[in-house]
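I have been asked to look over a protein record a colleague put together. This is what I was given:
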Amino acid sequence: MIRVYMTALASLVFTGVIGYFLLPVLRALKAGQSIREIGPTWHNNKAGTPMMGGLMFIFSAIICLLINFPSMEEKIAFYPLILGLCFGFVGFLDDFFKLKFKRNLGLTAIQKAMLQMAVSALYLYLLYVEGSMTSNIYIPFLNKSFYIHPMVYIFFAMFVMVGCVNAVNLTDGVDGLCGSVTIPVMVFFVISAVTMKKHDLALLPAALTGGLIAYLFYNWHPAKVFMGDTGSLFLGGIVCGLAFALDMPLVLVLIGLVYIVETLSVILQVGYFKLTHGKRLFKMSPIHHHFEMCGWKEEKIVLVFTFVTTVMCVVAWFAVSGHLT
């Protein structure tokens, strides 16, 4: 358990130091964010803020796991990291094209979807080879697992992974939001892994807990840097990767409630707009922008959404406690 605490502390320091040196580099490269024309007008003053800041906690997580490697007994601890890095690379490509062509849109939706599905399939294969993938679905609260056909499970898993990653990505729209909401999720995975005596697996979420806390020093409103799709897709990959590594993917419905609501707000907004020929269900989507339009300050949105996530993580702990012990 000492290793877990020390990893979180080390990651906090590493991320802070990496950020100190990375920020001037991003500014020198003019790696600035373009702001969507349909977004809140007051976000226009954020144009030019350096993006790809997610690299600071990504590098920190890699360093922390490599330092712990000599004392690690399970290879599976690296699999969620590999998944996160693969999704992060997709995000990096997206950020790169945004910067290259000076526009807010990078990869097309089809390009993203195909790459994300390929990454999901690779991760499932790694779990299968390791012997950690089952075709049983654990149901929170009921403390029961139900067998489904492996092929059905694979399609289910790929759908969940791609959906989860993009849901986390949508949450990155307000200064400090994605990082703050993901911290209690990482703490949940640390406690869950330790309870299941998978201490090696707990090191990754511990590293990201410390890393995200340090990252918020740079990303809290007014943000000095954005994590970009590089960071948000990486975090999405880690979140779903840990859920599958602990064999409880349905827990994402609880701990990822904010991510899900953000995604549903976009789906409902688009659907309602089309059905009503131009009317809007929300003032703006994703839903964090709706609250902005209602007069909420960015800091309030972050604190409320993080509080909701923290409460849901506590609920999730009781819901899956039978699976953990």
